[in-house]
Amino acid sequence: MTLVKICGIKTLKDALAALNYGAWAIGEVFAPSRRRIEVEDAARINRYLGDRIVKVGVFVDEKVEEVAYIARTCKLDLVQLHGNESPEYVEELHYPVIKAWRVEKRLCREDVRKFKVWAYLFDTAAYGLKGGSGRTFDWNLIRDFYGSRDIILAGGLNAANVGEAIKRVKPLAVDVSSGVEQAGEKDAAKIKLFMEKVKEADRYVS
């Protein structure tokens, strides 16, 4: 079964839509972004959710101490690092990590697996952005990782293309943000449709 992470959650309403339609995780962005959430709001939402869904905090080149503080305050289950953090940074953090890679060229296993993390997320490289570009990348660039059960595929996924993504890449999870939005806001109907397409693809793959 392919797990689904709905990223860019800012409200309890959106978090509950993700939960109710079967998402594995929500992503809360604490880096500069139009999807940024305040620490107090994330803490309130996460207290309500409890352990019913995995909570992932997204950070970009933030100080280790600040990441650790927010992770504790918001009761995050995983920390997603979307910047230029080093393997040493990951070790110092002492927290389960998803390390994001902005894919511009073919990635080799040796470079990626220098990071001892819970999972690796592959996203579209976009000038001036650390994620959330709404564009896909050439999945052939990560073909060395096809079928790996520790990768998360992101980058421009939506209901129209997530099925093909799952069939080709066979990731542990898929990550979606703009693909389930309408006019820049999360849309429950799009979340529902996205989840349905993931389930359809899983039936094909299995």
Structure explained in plain terms:
The protein is α/β, with parallel strands linked by helices and 206 residues long. The protein is globular, with a radius of gyration of 16 Å. The protein contains seven helices and ten strands. The mean pLDDT is 94. Helix 5 (109-112) links the parallel strand 5 (97-103) and strand 6 (119-124). The chain has one domain (3-205): TIM Barrel (Alpha-Beta Barrel), CATH 3.20.20. The strands form two sheets. Strands 1-2-3-4-5-6-7-8 form an eight-stranded parallel barrel, surrounded by four helices. The chain has a two-stranded antiparallel ribbon with strand order 9-10.
Helix proportion of residues, in percent?
25-40%
Radius of gyration: 16 Å
Distance between the termini: 8 Å
Biggest β-sheet description: 8 strands, parallel, barrel
Determine the mean pLDDT.
94
Strand order of the largest sheet: 1-2-3-4-5-6-7-8
Low-confidence stretches: none
Q: What is the assigned CATH homologous superfamily?
A: Aldolase class I
Shape: globular
- SSE string: EHEHEHEHEHEEHEEEH
